[in-house]
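Support reply, case 0932

Customer input (verbatim):
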Amino acid sequence: EAVMEKLKSAVELAQDGGVYDITWFNELLIPLLLTLGAAQGLHEAAHYLVAWSRQVKLTSPTILPSQALPYLSFQNRLKTSPKGYADLFDIAFAGPITGLSISFVALLVGLQLTTTVDPSTAQLLPSLPVGYLTQSTLAGTIVDLVLGGGDGILLNQDAATQVPLHPVAIGGFLGLIIHALDLVPIGSTDGGRMSQAILGRVWHLTFSSVVFLVLFISSFTSDSSILLGYLLLYSFTQRDMEIPCKNEVDKVELPRAVAALVSWLLAALILVPLR
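Our regenerated output:
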């Protein structure tokens, strides 16, 4: 409310021909954009670096929109076939795990910054409602642990209660959800490519259908607008499986399968709502 009041005053001052200063607003907006941009930029860079090392060409990324998030994902496609499932897995895995790592660090740093701002700055901090924070079990729990002491006091408040957060913390929170969605093992998402590499094309199709059905039911039982919007857009953009590898006989080794399982469990912790 304080932010909106200051912006309203600046608009009125500008309309009257006065001199106004909104550098304070840029100081709130720029850290948020830099946090999201750094995580997504390194996510894409990891894809292209691994693809280049495996002599695989990727298309330029396409931004997928979202109503509940700043954006849903950056979609790229393989232009040339990987040599085998191991290369396909490595290309897919590198991006989201990098984005998640950056976002996790940003969330922790941002929460620490939230606890150390002076009272006058705290009034101008952007905020997220408790109902939105509880959209993620892992990220919401971290916020409650740092700001509320871990007793659930913060997240047990009314869903409309606003929780002020430093822009870096908001960027980290949103980034965790965005990059976790990339790990969902359906279609030709990064998680889908990992699933195809681990299970093969036939079993990936079965596994992908089961995951889609579970997410579809969960989006209604948990009233998650993020999951519902994701599934709706996925149905139009990433339903198809990835192009075939040159060698689809040799399966990936056990360490990659373990990495896939751990990453999918992590994505589930991030995407499953607390309420």
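We compared this against your earlier run and they match. Two observations from our side: The first helix runs from residue 2 to 15. The radius of gyration is 21 Å. Please reopen the case if you see a mismatch on your end.
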